Amino acid sequence: xxxxxxxxxxxxxxxxxxxxxxxxxxxxxxxxxxxxxxxxxxxxxxxxxxxxxxxxxxxxxxxxxxxxxxxxxxxxxxxxxxxxxxxxxxxxxxxxxxxxxxxxxxxxxxxxxxxxxxxxxxxxxxxxxxxxxxxxxxxxxxxxxxxxxxxxxxxxxxxxxxxxxxxxxxxxxxxxxxxxxxxxxxxxxxxxxxxxxxxxxxxxxxxxxxxxxxxxxxxxxxxxxxxxxxxxxxxxxxxxxxxxxxxxxxxxxxxxxxxxxxxxxxxxxxxxxxxxxxxxxxxxxxxxxxxxxxxxxxxxxxxxxxxxxxxxxxxxxxxxxxxxxxxxxxxxxxxxxxxxxxxxxxxxxxxxxxxxxxxxxxxxxxxxxxxxxxxxxxxxxxxxxxxxxxxxxxxxxxxxxxxxxxxxxxxxxxxxxxxxxxxxxxxxxxxxxx
Length: 434
Hints:
There is one protein chain. With about 425 residues, the chain is of the alpha+beta class. It is about 50% helix and about 15% strand. It contains 14 helices and 10 strands. The strands form 3 sheets. The protein has a 4-stranded mixed beta sheet. Strands 2-3-7-6 form a 4-stranded antiparallel beta sheet, with no helix packed on it. Strand 9 and strand 10 (about 285-290) form a beta hairpin. It is globular.
């Protein structure tokens, strides 16, 4: 038994969000596309702070966390429906207090942080007063953290951090970094690492180079290669327990993966709606594009992909909301959702661009930034191949091998067993024929 309906009051909230995003958030995207991840200057604060206040007054601020942490505790199903609305605009998550990478960082702080760490880092993060970064990937190791070499060694009551981290998103604007480092290289692979909270201004943090997504401008979010050169961390910088780094990372990344899937639904829907408008408006040879059979196939294929994907993401979100934690069932579906994110985003957006012709390829349409994100869905929080493998292992855990060398649905023994089970009826059937 499963269901994921929402009450009419929440649907009214979603309808308000749709209008608010169209009228208030979309203009920010046009005028300041790369300011959503930065501490705003005074002139921009005058624009966005009143918008954030409207969101707070509606009870829609930081809804990924519970009421005790400044959120609403809506759960993943409602967050999924909200993310669909926000996803087409990078400013959307910032105005609603659910921007990455800060949401994931807030979640691990909420789960593993001490009272002092929550006061220093989590509260201003939730208030939208600062930004953070997650520093995990290394130049020689990304999807396999057991290959990490960045070390943190004890030094009295504190630690000394040495090594390099690649693709540390928004490190330029971050007030603090969450850094994963090897603390016990002799321990079992998944117990070797610990997680640390490191203020960005700590001496010894060097930016080797400022990487960006391809086709991004200089003022876009950075994904830097950082070098930690004898960076000293106090005892209060340890997040969780020594050796708990892999567990903390998985807690953060599992939530992040399903949130990526939620956003992929919204971005695909945005492109699909534009495609539908286009084929109804554009004419060729005296007929609207919508009357062409191959165009109709394209529309139907996109609709089917989005709806199937949306239902799968919602069911996965519902399973998380049941309070079972990240069981193998939930992790299986998150892995599949991650794989589908890249496929659906690619297919639907490609069709939408194609149906707009040359205009769709131009900078006069908003498809370019969305298209540049498509390969990211296959890479963020682990490449597609890893999640395919993970999903397969978890799926196969629910199945058993055949007890013989033949498949369990091999027909000869089944026919024989069926004949034996209904021998009397077969005999009567044969007598009737004679």
